[in-house]
Amino acid sequence: MNTFIVVAVILASSAVCMGLSRVLLTGTESRAKRLGISALCLLLGAVLAVGGLKYVVPLFSGGSSIQTNQSEPGTEDGGNELDRRIRAEVDKAWSKHRFFALLEEADPAAADRVRARLADMARHALETGGEFLVTDMALIGETAAEAAMPLIDKASDLSVSHFAEVALEQMHALRDQDPKYCLLFLFPQAFAGERVPPNISGLDNKRVLDVLAEVMDSALHEPQAPPSRERANEALSRTLNTLLPRLEARYKGREPVVAAFAAMSDPRLMPKADHAVVADVAISFYEEIMKLPLEERSQALRLLFAGPGAAR
After folding, report:
1. Distance (Å, whole) CA 9 – CA 3
2. Each residue's pLDDT tens digit in the chain (312 positions)?
3. With helix as H, strand as E and coil as C, how does 224-276 read?
4. How many CA atoms are closer than 13 Å to the CA of 251, on its beta-carbon side?
5. What does 270-294 look like in DSSP terms, one character per residue?
6. How far apart (Å, rounded) are the C-alpha atoms in residues 43 and 162?
7. Got the DSSP string for 102-123?
8. 16 to 11, 13, 24, 47, 267: CA distances (angstroms)
9. Which of 302, 227, 244 has the alpha carbon at shortest distance from 28?
């Protein structure tokens, strides 16, 4: 994992969190309400981390695959034969998924890194008789933040909305298996060394590739104007004001909600937090944004995913 990318994403999420805190707290006199809004703004930073980190870190493996047979012992040029087979598998994967061609167009250096990673994966599969997982999320995650996320502020409203829909599908599928899996997906930095188990039912990693390709295609070939910070903040403010009372009613008070936000903002608190509550709060935030009209929804999402520097 590229540590520089992770740090950059976290810094961007902090900037969004602090900026929106200032906007939303203006004119708010009630200390309790100020605490609640401040806590909710922590979630914005966490959600930006979701938008970036969940596709940056190695999360889990799964999706469509190419079955390979164990390589036979070779002669003197057995290594050359293995290399030819590796190149053939990589070329097959590259031509099969549109994401890779768009990645090559958007960021040739990132595309070279992906090719090298695919080659390593193909070699391991051929040498062990395993599967070459061409939609392995660890592979996607190490490149998407570099190549796709910087383009999302220029992507179409519809592609950004589809991106968030797929993220929600992944979150729901993981939470249904175990709330902790959802948190491993959203906040992997809070669970050092742990990963979501492979073969979780309900996950469709090919859809992740497809929606990333949609985002990149629209941004590269039909770029949109950057999101309006004012309009995005208005949409997010409305979302937060609607969400807080419902969460307090759901959990019979403010304390569980604030505790969930605290765990999102401090990885040290996550292992002992109520995983079901934290996962539910994060999913609820995304779901509330998705209720906004398409244009407002995309303004809010693009600001969150791309960071404040992309707004005008």
Report:
1. 10
2. 433 333 333 334 444 444 434 333 334 445 444 444 444 444 444 444 444 433 333 332 333 333 334 444 444 445 688 889 999 988 988 888 898 899 899 989 888 888 888 888 888 888 888 777 665 555 555 566 667 778 888 999 999 999 999 989 988 988 999 999 898 878 877 888 787 776 666 667 778 888 989 999 999 999 998 888 899 999 999 998 999 999 999 999 999 999 998 998 898 999 899 999 999 999 998 999 999 999 999 999 988 877 655 556
3. CCCCCHHHHHHHHHHHHHHHHHHHHHHCCCCHHHHHHHHHHHCHHHHHHCCHH
4. 20
5. GGGS-HHHHHHHHHHHHHHHHTS-H
6. 21
7. HHHHH-HHHHHHHHHHHHHHHH
8. 9, 5, 12, 10, 18
9. 244
Phi and psi of 303, rounded to 5°? -65, -45
Helices then strands, counting H and E runs in the chain, come out as 13, 2
Distance (Å, rounded) from C-alpha 83 to C-alpha 80? 5
pTM of whole model > 0.90?
no
The length of the chain is: 312
d(CA 10, CA 40): 17
Residue ranges per structural domain of the chain = 1-58+151-312, 65-134
